[in-house]
Amino acid sequence: MPQAQQAALTASLTALVTAVLGQWSGPLPRLVYVTDKGRAQDDYYRRVLRRLRHPRCPGRRLVWEWVLDFFHVAGYVAKLGEALFGSRGQGWYRRMRHWLRHRDQGAAHLLRSAVQHYNRRQLSKAARQAFWKAYRYLRRHRRWMAYARYSRLGLPLGSGVTEAACKTVFTQRLKRSGMRWHKESGQVIVDLRVLYLSGIWQEVVRKDLQARPLPQGVSSQPQARRIRRNAA
User: Fold this and answer.
1) Who has greater pLDDT, 155 or 27?
2) Contact 110/139 with Cβ under 8 angstroms?
3) Cα–Cα distance between 95 and 106 in angstroms, integer?
4) Can you give 146-172 as a three-state secondary structure string?
5) If you count Cβ atoms within 10 Å of the first and of the last residue's Cβ in the chain, which end, N or C, has fewer?
6) Residue 215 and residue 205: Cα distance in Å, rounded?
7) Is the distance from CB of 113 to CB of 96 less than 8 angstroms?
8) What is the rounded CA–CA span in Å between residue 193 and residue 100?
9) Which of 83, 81, 120, 112 is nearest to 97 (CA)?
10) 32 phi, psi to nearest 5 deg
11) What is the pLDDT of residues 65-81, one digit of tens each?
């Protein structure tokens, strides 16, 4: 459930990463951190991920490849095209999106093209503000947009799997018409839904029943004697 600073999610994700790597017996896999660019994501990387040590080799620091979600970035490219060309910016947007994904230094080529068009056009105040807001975002974060290299390495470019999981786990169950949840009760439903969707419901129920103490039998003899006395 939603939580300020995502403390529970941070602890769970860190424990999962550590547990998986602790049981990994082969060569260390390439580690990829695919995110949108936000304060919580930045904080988790700087405060936790980049400081993690290999659980089986404590002196070895884990190395992460940070990928900024391509489809999130493409939204800012679309905003540049709209600011420059209005409703006619789709052609430029599609070309720049292709450059961004397939060219080395694609982000730099995109930004250079955007500035050239900006210098040739007379834009309204609102369009100029929208242009520079999108431009600054892309320029500030371009170091995490090496999508051509990511593709050659076989790395994921987007966080679509995570987005789909959020929809499947949360939205389809907790956001139905008229539903309202407290954090405690909502978390119970989320936990149960994850067990069900993971296909381990029967196994968990069986283990839960086995872990519970058996009820103690109550002898019926004393009660029977009391009944006979009362009858007499």
Assistant:
1) 155
2) no
3) 11
4) CHHHHHHHCCCCCCHHHHHHHHHHHHH
5) C
6) 18
7) yes
8) 38
9) 81
10) -125, 130
11) 999 999 999 999 999 99
Confidence at residue 228, expressed as pLDDT on a 0 to 100 scale:
47
Place of tokens 């929809």: 167
Cβ partners under 8 Å of residue 81, min gap 6: 89, 90, 92, 93, 96
In this structure, are residues 67 and 155 in contact, taking their beta carbons and an 8 Å threshold?
A: yes
Q: What is the pLDDT of residues 204-227, one digit of tens each?
A: 999 999 998 887 765 555 555 554
- pTM score, whole prediction: 0.77
DSSP labels, 121-133: S---HHHHHHHHH
CA-to-CA dists, residue 124 to 81, 128, 136, 167, angstroms: 14, 6, 18, 38
Q: Are 55 and 17 in contact (CB under 8 A)?
A: no
- Note whether 80 and 90 are within 8 A (CB): no
pLDDT at residue number 232: 40
The CA distance from 84 to 80, in Å, is 6
Token code pair at residue 163: 């987005």
- Contact partners, residue 12, CB within 8 Å, separation at least 6: none
126 or 7, higher pLDDT: 126
Yes or no: say if 80 and 99 are a contact pair by the CB < 8 Å rule.
Answer: no
Tokens in use for 27? 């060569």
Instruction: Please report, for the chain, how many H helices and E strands are present, in that order.
Output: 12, 4
Give all strands (DSSP E) within the chain, no chain letters: 31-35, 53-54, 57-61, 64-68
pLDDT tens, residue by residue, 14-68: 999 989 988 888 888 889 999 988 888 899 999 999 898 888 777 888 899 999 9
